[in-house]
Amino acid sequence: MWVLMTYLTDMWKLDITHAAAIVNLFAGAATILPVGIAFLVDAFVGDYCCLLVSSLAFSFGLAIMTVSTLTSKGDTQKFLMFYIALTLNAIGVSGHSVSLASFLERQVQIQTLSNQDDIERKRPRKFKSFLKGDIIVVVLLYVAAVALSYAPWCVRFGIPAAGLMVATLLFVSGSCSYKHARPLGRSPLTTVCRVLVASLYKRSCHSPQDANQLYENQLSPHFVPHTQGLRFLDKAAIIVPTQTLGQQEQNGWELCRVTEVEEVKLLIRMIPLWMTFIMSGVVKSIGDTYFSEQANNMDDKIGKLTVPGLFILQAFYQVSKFVFTELSSKVANKLFQKSSGRCVGPIGVISAMVFSILCCIIAAKVETRRLNVTKSVGLVEKPSEIIPMSMFWLLPQFFFLAAVDGTSEYLCEDLDEVSGYCIARFYRGQVPTSTMIRYLRLFTKAVCGAGIVGSVILADEVSSFSKMGGRPSWFQDTLNRSRLDNYYWTVAVLSFINLVLCILVAIWYTCQHLILMMCDVVVAVKRVVLYFYAPVVSRL
């Protein structure tokens, strides 16, 4: 969907602000929706139904978008079809991001090798065949993308729609051979609501001094020890004397386990760090919008050879993003091996902020040069003309944008290898693996999505601010008349402020961790004292 900005400005003749708002609202919704869809998958529908519905939604969305490019109806009807298509596409993307990985993992679990020697012997052969197949698929996809870049818009949307329809039919044809899993009937989000409701219900109760008096099912395979802090939530695990334990266990909305309370504490403790991550979403939002629009209006020739420049920039971005994702993983592992694994600052988030600042500064410098070239050749009032400046000037800003996205993707996805460097695992040094980990990942992505949506508001506020004193707005109808360089400088300043806040939050987390450790030590000392001296006091 990285061509969507070009489609809206070239075909619909929208101004860059309106087109960017549509693209960013779609991208933000596709990132926020997985939280709600994950709840439905866990509680009601399961992975298979989610994949089926999302595949159908994605297919029909692209089909409707294709029809909207062919229809001769008025702008209102065409826009209505387009918005319906975007909504269906957002549902399709969100559903696949939630269920595809877990569904495929369940199918792969059927085929296991019992002999470790067979595993070691077949691993190189399997890796080589996978690598060859993966390269072939990627090359074919890129060749198809290059070919489609010269086709009409109905073909650009129609061929992917037909491909998705065929893929959906193939997916449905194998339904009988899939390994299905029933939905759990519950969700970690339900646990959050239960803990909050139970805490409010028992708000008049006093929390016991000894955490061992709180309710915990010791027979459960998953157990999280009690931590100090957020004591109000501990009231959800208080056993009231007016009812028997069996009666209270039957009503999960009045009594919760300590493990469930600690999972909710984990989410609440992540909120300050999540808030600093919003700016990454703001920086991401300019990649598929303003960067793409700049590339679309610049020279796409290498010598006398015309190349699909926007496609090359996107391919360069994807490769760089993959490199930074892998690099973030290796660096984090090295740092983790040299540290205790606890109380380590969110280095990944800080790195993403630094890359964001560099990306915006370079983008501002390049845009200033592009505007100067535009003025020198007299193309300010000719938005359809190509600027005599190579689009490969945009490579550095795409590189640092890939660094932001690659680092952020590692922070969102890599939840099992390193403790302390990933945003969703900042407290994993204290809290072991739990059912909340999947939702931590989704919440992290949702925060980035909120930043993408927030960029729409930011652009509007910046436009209003720039018009103060009767000055022209930085956002005009065309790219050549706008001052995107000033907007990039604004985002760079905001990213720097966010970097400072991120460092302060990291220091605060470290202090909080030390406080929690001291509280645990004090509680342990009290228990030892009571154990040895309580019999002596009772005799006196």
Automatic annotation (TrEMBL):
It is found in: Membrane. This is Protein NRT1/ PTR FAMILY 5.5. GO terms for cellular component: membrane. Belongs to the major facilitator superfamily. Proton-dependent oligopeptide transporter (POT/PTR) (TC 2.A.17) family. Signal peptide: none annotated. Its main location: membrane. Pfam families: PTR2. It comes from Juglans regia. It is a multi-pass membrane protein. One of its GO terms (molecular function) is dipeptide transmembrane transporter activity. The chain crosses the membrane at residues 20-41, 48-68, 80-104, 130-151, 157-178, 266-286, 344-366, 442-459, 487-507. GO terms for biological process: dipeptide transport; transmembrane transport. Keywords: Membrane, Transmembrane, Transmembrane helix.
